[in-house]
Amino acid sequence: MDSIVLSVIMVADGDCPYLAASLYSVYNALYGMDVEVFIVDGGLPKTERETIAFAYPKARFLESSLGNRAVSLNTAIRKSHGEFVLFLAPSVLVGEETLRRFFFQLDQERNIGAIGLRILDTHGELCRLSKRAFPHLDLLLYRLYGLSDLYPNSKRYGAYFLPDCVADKAYEVDVLSTQYMLVRREALEKAGLFDERLDEWMLDIDLSFRLWQADYRVMYMPERVLCGQSVEKEMTGEDWKRLFEAVKDFYAKNGEAIDGLNRLLISLGLFLYPLRRRLIKSTHRFAPAATRRLLILSVEENFPRLKSLAEEKIPNLRSVSHWNLGEERVMGAISRRNQMKGYTDYLFAVPDVRLDQLFLFMERQPNKSSFYHLYIKAQDRLISFP
Length: 386
Fold this sequence. Notes:
Elements: E1 6-12, H1 19-29, E2 35-41, H2 46-55, E3 60-63, H3 69-79, E4 84-88, E5 92-94, H4 100-108, E6 112-120, H5 137-144, H6 147-150, E7 171-172, E8 180-184, H7 185-191, H8 203-213, E9 217-227, H9 237-253, H10 260-279, E10 292-298, H11 303-313, E11 317-324, H12 336-340, E12 345-350, H13 355-364, E13 371-376, E14 381-384
Parallel strand pairs: 1-2, 1-4, 2-3, 6-9, 10-11, 10-12, 12-13
Antiparallel strand pairs: 4-8, 5-9, 6-8, 7-9, 13-14
């Protein structure tokens, strides 16, 4: 067998509307490299699996261990051979240069065990789960009571999401997200695979913790990737109960226990949570405008097809304009003139636009309530991000 540089592992639970786009981005970024891709199928629709298998015949499907994500991930790890392993959510798209640039750094700095990136949400803002502190109980209580949302930049109340760790710089951090986590196999073998006894909410925390225990650095890098589905949902009271049970198990595994006072604070916080949730929102949600104005970024020859698809697929579309990439720069579309036109939606055509350019555009776009759409010419498919 040829030497495999990278093994990509994706767990696809149920319907995954961005899986094809994610695979396109991965294979495009790794063109010419020795790479293997494993898709753990946790209930993909038959037609979607057949479409993926036809478009990407080298991708290998594995059956999921339903109800235990760690078992599914470990099964894929044991079947893989790459020097590096990338855990990637099937809703995450990577840029053309996102992966290659880190292999040299990992070769040169052998004490780096894992690298995570700047995960953007569908409106171009940083997903806070990209970089985190270990779940010390006081930090979770600040989140439960809403103090971290009221004071997100506080070194005390907002510390769980590392407010001092500026998003556009590299840092050593405690915890990375398995939405995108590039791990050195040697470090993974030394630290151990995912703990199959823990709740899936603790898997990335536990693995990051054990990498540190094995004397490897865990690094956050500022390069961008896009998550097509919301990573940070508004938590319910049941979600919090589950989280604290998971944290209790994690603490017990590491020889600690939650004392009586903290158990009382947790119980009180759970009891008050419905009121807290009404008063303090943890996440933002944007609704599409009643009438939508779309700007399409593409070369001239692709515009008619894109306009037709947009009018068919995007509801409440009032107007469609074109930014001709044969004559204009991508980033030039972020202009005062265009902001005044009140575009609510942007449609990018790939490969007319590089994914790296799309991510940069989303992050620098002043209007964070904008909605984005992606057309991948190779798939003749329009994808809309919520």
